[in-house]
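Sat 14:20. Reprocessing the chain from the morning session after the first attempt stalled halfway. Input below, unchanged.
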Amino acid sequence: MPTLLSDPRFAITKTGGFRLKDHTCDLPGDLGKKELKEQLEVDKERISELQEVLYPAGKHALLMIFQAMDAAGKDSCIRHVMSGVNPQGVRVWSFKAPSTLERSHDFLWRHSQAVPERGHIGIHNRSHYEEVLVTRVHPEFILGQNIPTVLSLKDIDAAFWGSRYSAIRAWEKQLADCGTVIMKFFLNMSRKEQKKRFIERIDEPAKNWKFNAGDVKERGHWEEYMKAYEAAIGATAAPHAPWFIIPADEQWESRAMVGRLLREQLEALKMVQPKPDPGAAAALKQAKADLLAEKD
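Finished this time. Tokens:
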């Protein structure tokens, strides 16, 4: 089966013109929910095995970044894909609006505090990309960051956004150079599907807690968000920090795709269990002998 990691239908690995209309919201093919769930279960088992090598090998960290419009299924995708891993080796950060302390630092500061150490998997549910997405649609938010060179909305120009993209590229390159494997997922949901999911959240009492009336207001900026995503993805895709455009109109499709991509990426690292040095091996042998010599 060909790898998804390098499939140009989904993987964006270089900067340049990027258009969301070139990417589907619905995965081609006839696999049903049952087959997709079975595929994900197989991949999850392999991911669990590979995680058991990632930690002792201690050479790489894995940073998974999830971005999407509201109701695209980020939370459920993370939950289903990662449900088979050892929770001690995984941490999820869900970034909300920045606090007063966070706004007093540069826009990457709080995210740099949440980078996984080698041997671990870190998941950013929303990320530093909010600073070139939400703030691009609502540039007035930038004024609250007290940046010395930004005195009015007129100062938030093309050069400003170019500087932010440059900072993101440099930061991600530095992480990659130090052993952090970066995977950036955009769950590509259609506007029609978002409307359907919002109505479900309103109509089904068990889902009412998921609905925020403000989400409908933000939906009115759909085209602006799509342009912001196109600009951000096109400016920051790289071989060491690829974007994966995941069809998200069918949630089991997106879960199966993310699971497969994670499995493929871990396999691509070609990790091996570290062997103990001769001294440690001798110590293990002696410890076993001492245990067997004990009188019960």
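The two ends are 54 Å apart (CA to CA).
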